């Protein structure tokens, strides 16, 4: 390896490429494959604070997304009366559609030759887009039903916010395989889940305390979270940029030769544009070539279809538990669930790493527990009982969040396309989160009592479907042959 003095394990994921006649990229494997997972034990560990700073986007993402769909949007949509569930379903559907940006961001990010690295530029751009969207949403808050113009502007601004947030997440999650040593993957994913849950916890606690349940104030809160994560990622994600040299002529003539490369300065990404075929293919995961990663992604889709019933939980508290302050009760309940979830994240990740990367048993247990808690909700009528169930479900969800990301990292087929592949994996979450409410919203609407509330039968259908989705998630995961690191 003396001919590549600058090459380190961290550089492997930002490795350079050769070109073929059709402009495609391929890894210069003869120079880089000498660095394998056997050397990973010699890679210095990342400090806890650096890991948390690198993944600070998860804190912002949790703080925004959890309160967005459980408090902010239900409150905004409540002005529509009986049609509130339909309006809320529309917003969730838009959020799911916006997630389609993630594989495209990943495709471009994997090829990015910016001096700040492959991921940080997209965190910054995503942060800017989301902040602009949030400012417009704030301007039209609580007035979306005044006329069609207000509604359309708010919806467009919401879509921009989602595009920005999903861009941040797509770039941030790719930093894990890029910067974190293999022997810290489970631990890092535990911290990522902890940050997500802690962000959610902070969001709900803030909404119910110093934000005074003010919709106007919560948009300021969202803006601050986005700005903070952008700054921390920019400062602490020490990416190695892809070294670029003006080699357009050589690339066009296909004159790169693996046996003539003597240093990193001798090769770089060609400047050929991304084609529509590549964009289309960026959404595809082969069930044969990417077998395990494919089934992990499908399993994730069903899990989030199950968890998405929480979108209507504020209405459940209002109609079935009969709480006097649904928004405040929802915030308290979320704090309890997220707090217990936070307890489980890091220990589960460390235990799974120590026990040989055993991930699936924790997912199976999480799905079983969440299914049971769903059915329990049909037989209780006190808020205290709901809090007990939320604490149990929170632990199960915290364990799943850690193992979900760990399974993706363990089965990731190609580190050179990590952002693109993880972008598709990210789409699975939003497809599930969108399909669940899009199915559940009309079901609740059909069981409406006519006075803006929904029946126990409607909620029973929701919880049954949720349990079915959890079961499918666990069943599909049995098709994953191995969770060993690629």
What keyword list fits this structure?
two-stranded antiparallel sheet; disordered N terminus; 486 residues; globular; 2 strands
Overview of the structural elements:
With 486 residues, this protein is mainly alpha-helical. It has 19 helices and two strands. It has helices at residues 9-12, 29-32, 48-54, 56-77, 84-98, 101-110, 120-139, 148-179, 185-208, 215-236, 248-252, 276-281, 291-307, 313-321, 326-354, 360-376, 383-411, 418-446, 456-477, and strands at 17-19, 25-27. Strands 1-2 form a two-stranded antiparallel ribbon. Strand 1 and strand 2 (25-27) form a beta hairpin. Helix 14 crosses helix 15, helix 15 (326-354) runs parallel beside helix 17 and helix 16 (360-376) runs antiparallel to helix 17. The chain is globular. The two termini are 22 Å apart. The model is unreliable at 1-39 and 244-271 (pLDDT under 50).
Mean pLDDT across all amino acids: 78
Helix content: 55-70%
Sheet having the most strands: 2 strands, antiparallel
Distance between the termini: 22 Å
Radius of gyration: 23 Å
How much strand content do the residues show?
A: under 5%
Specify the overall morphology.
globular
Instruction: Indicate the structural class.
Output: mainly alpha
Task: Give the number of DSSP strands.
Answer: 2
One letter per element, helices H and strands E, the order comes to HEEHHHHHHHHHHHHHHHHHH
Largest beta sheet: strand ordering: 1-2
The low-pLDDT segments are 1-39, 244-271
Q: What count of helical segments does DSSP give?
A: 19
